[in-house]
């Protein structure tokens, strides 16, 4: 390797980076035994100008007038000067990361680039910092991250959704122009900041794919462009408000981290890289030994019960195997008297702080953790905080901000508001033995353009989470956004799980969890079994319980309203989760292809010697006899036993032969290539299968 080229190896991929005279990613794809700058000559494009001009991750508008390949846009206050091209001053390689210092002398800008390729997982990380070296302020219009794509990467899979139906996928093959996704609501649930590009008709097991995720919980822009000469680029950036990024002399701004992974054999290989990276580097292993079963007690439920009934509810939860008892308190912000400022209290209505303290003691006496569900960033319309401190509301100074669910947003960029909220949260977590906080944020930032605060609001919320986590390391935090949101790798450094969605319908949850699994391992996906209030459908606890099994299980029930039969079903699935979570939260999570994913979905968690397979029948099968699924992730040299762990009662009358022979020895090679015939399942039911090595 020459002095101007760096090669990184990781997982199943290789990366070849030209560092001088300017940074340029020459290759990112299947792992190579050797590669050099001479090898890269075979990919060079013919010269279109008087000299060879090659797109770089650092190109500005002075080099390219189209969006394809364009990474940086901006101007000076007194005159227009676009960044042209950043030349490398110096670089160093340490472990798995390359750090480059680049400069554009004409534009008086310095660019720091950090590019890494994790040795074990092959996940690529890219981050940049832009510094103004001039004497005049520089206004940044765009500051993005760019990755070149192989020309064979012709198909795009994006993510879309809405409330209760997030993380659905769509596909497009843009032959010319590009694919663009922009999101401006600071919640993400309808457009996740992730994208997958691959060879035509890639699937779970076939085709090459390149996946990318911007680790950023605010507004964002993702795009895939195809230039007229056939070259393809993937771009990702935080989407800023007009004039949001002003760099005074000597000041800097950073991009979020972009994480990307290459999958040589379909989407599952890409997901495995992401899952392992999350577990090893983003804190997902914290608490992995035991992800406790949670009971989410909504405000409407506990307010309808007396203190004695709440105790009975806690006692029943403990008997059914619940390990964490969570109360939604919303957020009570009031003044003790008109002369005092607002305070934060674990009390409201008819439940006093003393009652809450006694309930916590009662919960812990029953060997359960205690958690709270609250909305720290919310200001209610009639709250003391809003009335006494109108300047704390995130809004335009001269216009009244519209209410949403009778809520306003607390402006965390206001130092007094941030300090007040942190002090109240810190005091609450110090005064009460709280093991878990569900941090809810349920409205859009509709007027965050005031003083361009959209990015700063998210950064200040993250900073508070980080500080609270440091001061209270035994307390776990979970972001909760209505419909599912604030789900990204950036937050995973501070939290242990996400609230996947408010959807209580198992069919909706199946599709949401399926979409999340492309980037997230199951243990960080907060799932729950509860009353189906978001749909008119009535479903059995079989499909709800088995759906929640493939995540970090929780329940949302009025425990006192459960019938004896429902209690038995809850206890059964809680016990099944506890029995399997040692596998579920450390094993390889693989999606299994079905003939008609509209009608049925399948997936499994695979360990060294055994696996569990879940099949959900969402709609009636198109055929009288159900399909055969081919099962990946097994050892073709091993023989396996197969048995049913859980199934709807109706399946007893339509068994397939293997279900009657649990001691039969089936080869892994056969299951991977010929497959396993499923029983015919009624619509809205699920099946759980265990596959274990035959001794």
Automatic annotation (TrEMBL):
Its EC number is 3.2.1.22. InterPro entries: Aldolase_TIM, Alpga-gal_N_sf, Alpha-glycosidase_related, GH, Glyco_hydro_36, Glyco_hydro_36_C, Glyco_hydro_36_N, Glyco_hydro_b. Keywords: Glycosidase, Hydrolase. SUPFAM superfamilies: (Trans)glycosidases. CDD domains: GH36 (cd14791). It holds the Pfam family Melibiase. Residues 22-236 form the Glycosyl hydrolase family 36 N-terminal domain. This is Alpha-galactosidase.
């Amino acid at each position: 390797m020459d002095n101007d080229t760096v090669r990184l190896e990781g997982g199943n991929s290789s990366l070849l980076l030209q560092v001088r005279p300017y940074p340029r990613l020459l290759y990112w794809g299947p792992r190579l035994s050797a590669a050099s700058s001479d090898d890269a000559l075979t990919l060079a494009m013919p010269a279109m100008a008087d000299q060879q001009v090659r797109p770089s991750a650092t190109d500005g508008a002075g080099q390219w007038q189209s969006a394809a390949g364009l990474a940086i846009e901006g101007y000076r206050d007194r005159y227009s000067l676009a960044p042209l091209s950043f030349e490398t001053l110096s670089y160093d390689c340490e472990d798995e990361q390359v750090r480059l210092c680049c400069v554009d002398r004409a534009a008086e800008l310095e660019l720091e680039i950090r590019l890494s390729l994790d040795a074990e997982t092959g996940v690529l990380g890219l981050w940049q910092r832009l510094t103004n070296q001039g004497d005049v302020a520089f206004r940044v219009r765009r500051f993005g991250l760019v990755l070149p794509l192989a020309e064979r990467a012709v198909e795009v899979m994006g993510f879309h959704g809405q409330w209760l139906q997030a993380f659905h996928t769509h596909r497009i093959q843009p032959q010319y122009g590009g694919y663009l996704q922009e999101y401006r609501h600071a919640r993400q649930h309808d457009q996740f900041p992730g994208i997958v590009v691959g060879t035509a008709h890639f699937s779970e097991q076939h085709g090459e794919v390149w996946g990318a995720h911007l680790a950023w919980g605010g507004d964002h822009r993702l795009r895939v462009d195809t230039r007229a000469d056939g070259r393809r680029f993937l771009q990702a950036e935080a989407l800023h408000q007009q004039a949001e990024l002003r760099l005074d002399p000597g000041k800097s701004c950073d991009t979020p981290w972009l994480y990307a992974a290459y999958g040589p054999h379909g989407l599952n290989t890409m997901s495995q890289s992401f899952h392992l990276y999350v577990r090893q580097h983003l804190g997902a292993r914290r608490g992995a030994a035991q992800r406790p079963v949670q009971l989410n007690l909504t405000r409407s439920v506990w307010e309808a019960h007396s203190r004695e009934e709440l105790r009975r509810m806690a006692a029943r939860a403990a008997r059914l195997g619940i390990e964490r008892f969570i109360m939604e308190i919303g957020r009570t912000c009031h003044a003790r008297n008109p002369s005092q400022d607002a305070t934060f209290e674990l009390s409201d209505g008819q439940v006093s702080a003393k009652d809450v303290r006694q309930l916590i003691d009662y919960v812990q006496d029953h060997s359960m953790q205690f958690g709270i569900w609250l909305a720290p960033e919310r200001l209610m319309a009639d709250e003391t905080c809003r009335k006494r401190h109108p300047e704390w509301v995130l809004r335009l100074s001269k216009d009244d901000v519209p209410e949403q669910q009778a809520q306003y947003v607390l402006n965390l960029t206001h130092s007094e508001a941030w300090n007040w909220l942190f002090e109240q949260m810190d005091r609450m977590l110090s005064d009460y033995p709280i093991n878990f906080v569900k941090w809810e944020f349920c409205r859009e930032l509709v007027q965050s353009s005031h003083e361009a605060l959209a990015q700063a609001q998210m950064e200040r919320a993250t900073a508070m989470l980080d500080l609270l986590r440091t001061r209270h390391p035994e307390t776990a935090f979970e972001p909760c956004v209505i419909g599912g949101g604030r789900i990204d790798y950036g937050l995973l450094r501070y939290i242990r799980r996400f609230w996947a969605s408010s959807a209580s319908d198992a069919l909706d949850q199946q599709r949401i969890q399926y979409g999340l699994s492309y980037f997230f391992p199951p243990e960080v996906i907060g799932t729950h079994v509860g009353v189906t209030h978001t749909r008119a459908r009535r479903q059995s606890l079989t499909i709800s319980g088995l759906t929640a099994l493939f995540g970090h299980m929780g329940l949302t029930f009025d425990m006192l309203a459960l019938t004896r039969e429902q209690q038995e079903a809850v206890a059964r699935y809680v016990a099944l989760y506890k029995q399997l979570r040692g596998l579920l939260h450390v094993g390889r999570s693989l999606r299994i292809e079905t003939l008609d994913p509209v009608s049925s979905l399948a997936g499994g968690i695979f360990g060294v010697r055994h696996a569990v397979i879940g099949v959900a029948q969402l709609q009636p099968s198109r055929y009288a006899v159900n399909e055969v699924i081919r099962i990946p992730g097994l050892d073709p040299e091993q023989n396996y036993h197969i048995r049913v762990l859980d199934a709807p009662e109706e399946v007893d009358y339509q068994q397939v032969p293997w279900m009657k022979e649990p001691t039969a020895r089936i080869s892994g090679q056969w299951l991977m290539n010929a497959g396993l015939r499923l029983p015919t399942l009624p619509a809205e039911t699920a099946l759980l299968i265990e596959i274990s090595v035959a001794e």
